[in-house]
Amino acid sequence: MTALCLLASLLAQPAATAPAPAPFGLRIVDAETGRGVPLVELKATTQQRFWTDSAGWVAITEPELLGHEVFFHVASHGYEFEQEGFGYRGRAVRCEPGGRATWPITRRNLAERLYRITGAGIYNHSVTLGEPVPIAEPLLNGGVAGLDSTQPAVYQGRIHWFWGDTNRLAHPLGNFETTGGVSDLPAAGGLDPAVGIDIRFHTNDAGFARSMIRRPGPGPIWVDGMITLPDAAGRERLCCGWTKVDQDMRAVSRGLAAWDDAAEQFELVVDVPLDAPYVPYGQPFIHEGYAYFGDPFPNLRVPATFEAWADLDQYEGFAWGADGYQWRPGVAGDPQYTEHERIEAGEQPAETARWRVRAADEPARRISLHRGTVRYNPYLDAWLLIAVENFGGPSFLGEVWAGIADSPMGPWGEVRRILTHDRYSFYNPRQDEFFDQDGGRTVYFEGTYASTFSRTEDLTPLYDYNQMMYRLDVELLR
């Protein structure tokens, strides 16, 4: 072989590839608890951005950053990082391959962010770094990339979860006929809710979340008012309302449905006319023999049996009249804004208000609440409200408040802000009362973190359009 041929042969050989350097791990922890904080943004001076996973880790794998001193700006909704000498909130660190660093961040929220419940890459950085993860599916569960608003209920000793429109990796269109899954209660083998939730999604043959309810015609179908009730034979029944909408999100049909154990799907119980004054909705609870419905304030009730729930003639709405507020058959309960309008018009005395809540730190400022839950709290021996503000600030639909009342019907009075978001939504918050700890002192609540309604085009990768879990020490509300 000539020297020229030998050179050509050598040039044609693929170059040996050096092994990729080990990633550098940077963890952000709550300065008070030492727990990793999810959803913290780290931005390098190169404008490269990273978001901590549910354990608070970021894995730096970029070869141009490894082995170098890198300054990261640090920011997160409701949290604040220390300022350096020039006023920037951030710090420099040498990103040595295989190295680790931990930085504390100060929480300003009353509630503590714990983890993301759903979506892709919940523990993506932890997996990359080889750090331990608490859940069985840390990267992709049920093929779910993102989903909307939760409707859970305890049924037959397990937590049954249901969500709205659901995104997948394979196509921009996913499941629009309700997604579902189950998990074990903490006392029956499930994880401590402070650690996580191992959800087992109902999936199709392709491994993606399948439809939980079907009705004729095109368009999404959503479930609401999820509740477990006994029937006349003493059997538990998992019940919900449902609504099917057209492309303009207008209701085209609705009704009541119950869970079929064999089919693992909801089956029709009764159709509800579109002009009916009410249908079970919101996040219900049972109290003194009645099932109460509302979002957030309970304004509709029915005897807490399956047969009564399926009979619209047995419902009562909490409504104002000549004799004040009363439970009235055959009418829809008054929403919060109706009470506001009556009082402003002089048609109702202000001292009779049930739902005119005001900010504890600004008593003159009334808070308009959008959606949430009301639950009895044994630690407080009172009723606990957790709800999101409508037309709030700095986020339009991401300011979450909590309040206490002696009755589920109020009056509610003062509320305290427990979460804030910077131009991002956190809507449909829901207290998961089956996770309460310490006699009710520690409560867990979740909501949908989404750019929807937030007037921002800067979507958070992986986190957007997914459920986030928080916990709250209710002693802070006293």
Keywords summarizing the entry:
mainly beta, Immunoglobulin-like, five-stranded antiparallel sheet, 33 strands, 6% helix
Q: Which fold name fills CATH's third level, the topology of the domain at 24-118 and 123-129?
A: Immunoglobulin-like
The CATH architecture of the domain at 24-118 and 123-129 can be given as Sandwich
State the shape: globular
Q: Provide the residue-averaged pLDDT.
A: 95
Class from secondary-structure proportions: mainly beta
Query: Could you estimate the helical fraction of the residues in percent?
Result: under 10%
Superfamily at the CATH H level of the domain at 24-118 and 123-129?
Carboxypeptidase-like, regulatory domain
Strand content bin: 35-45%
Q: What is the CATH class of the domain at 24-118 and 123-129?
A: Mainly Beta
**Rg (CA only):** 25 Å
Q: How many β-strand stretches?
A: 33
Can you count the helices?
4
Lateral arrangement of strands in the main beta sheet: 26-25-30-29-28-27
Give the termini separation: 89 Å
The major beta sheet can be summarized as:
6 strands, mixed
Q: Stretches where pLDDT falls below 50 for ≥5 residues?
A: none
